[in-house]
Amino acid sequence: METVPIRGVARIPADFFGAGSDPFVGSIPLAGVPLGVTAQGDFGNSDTLISRSADPFDRCELLGPFPYGAPSVDIQILDLSLASTTSLTVTYDNGQDPEEWNVTVDLSAVHTDGVPENDPPLGYLDAIRTYCNGGTYTSLLYVLPRCTFIKVSDPGVTRILDTGLTGGYDPVPLNQIDPAPWVMDIDSDLGLTGDPCSDFHAGITDPVEIYNCDCNATGQRDICDIEDAASLDCNANQVPDECDLSEGTSSDNNANDVPDECDMGIPELPGAVEHQARKNRYISIDPNNDLIDVALRVELTSMKRCTGNPARACRDTSDCQNPTPGQGLCVEHAHVGSVLGWVQEPFQGCSPAHACDSTDWFTGIGPEPWYQD
Ligand SMILES: [Ca+2]
Ligand SMILES: [Ca+2]
Ligand SMILES: [Ca+2]
Ligand SMILES: [Ca+2]
Question: How far does residue 301's CA lie from ligand 3's centre (Å)?
């Protein structure tokens, strides 16, 4: 919350606070009070709600020619919630009987009555875009405040000054003269939330300002290429992967046109082999690569099983006879395309009594999904 002095309310007339109260002239320091849930939605810690006729820039456009300006955008205040940070002192009969009063400030009824004719003038927002995701802006906003004064010693006693309904008060110009930052997209590292329907977020500075908005020369801002799926971004760095490779920020040692950090975790598999060769029986994979949600799935093209117990896999007939003689012969069963599941340890397991070696049998299949992020 920041302090927003409102200086337009230059004078509170005599007898406003009570018979004989002196006119009050001065500035009252104010701070924002969270709007929270309103008729227009939940605005959390925001203290001011402003509507714009449009976003100043198209998010997917490239940076225009210098000075990167956009037409002015009309703005209008929709809600306001402020409160005094220190009480003000009211006196009577030329300085006698001082009293302390607090004040809260919201909008005059003329702002909210749905009648446009009595509204203060529209304000404007002038934005320039100095890098791909944002720039700076200045603005002017007109406000007719409604002040509710609350007597500190007796909070049940209030006085209301609605500057829109009381003659003699001009709209207060809230002028953002010093260029303030804005962004189109809020960096997730900032932990801030903004209106998801808006491409203009005031008062936020991007941690990194990017000036090359079209690294792949598509004529469209790269972040939109990714959103349109015209470009991939497997490493989730908000840069099209073709630019990661062409600019050398990602390596491609296996020349598959995919940044190598996205290849990590996918083993280089040998070609399909007959199971008798007993290759590929133990594969080390990295399930911690969160960019890849499939580790490795096993398909068998053929497999031997015991004739007496077809559920039992075998290498030769001795496997079918052991431990129970007479369990049949070991013969080939076709299982073309059978998906068995996910690779895990060799089913025999490794133990002091059974050291794993190259003759171990590769059928260790975990129930799906054994490897899944
Ligand atoms: Ca009105
Ligand atoms: Ca582009
Ligand atoms: Ca990328
Ligand atoms: Ca690669």
Answer: 37
